[in-house]
Amino acid sequence: MDISMDSIGNRIRERRKELRLTQTDMHRECGITSGALSQIENGSRVPSAIAFYSISQALNCSMEYLMTGCLLYTSPSP
Fold first, then answer.
1. Would the pLDDT of 46 be above 60?
2. What CA–CA distance (Å, rounded) separates 66 from 11?
3. Sign (positive/negative) of CA torsion 44, 6, 38, 47?
4. Quick check: 47 and 40 in contact, CB under 8 A?
């Protein structure tokens, strides 16, 4: 499991592209400037917890997935 900023940035970029979102789309969705998002995707900037949460919501995935690359499953409630 790789939790470096480079790997987190790569997962953010890959998921964004998978959803066919531009950095401008992400700015509109979560308020992060294109420049800041570019730095996060390149691993040269660490997002705040709030920005990281906003990114995960815009990408429709968990923060855990962005951090670890692992999909977390929970059992359905009885």
1. yes
2. 6
3. negative
4. yes
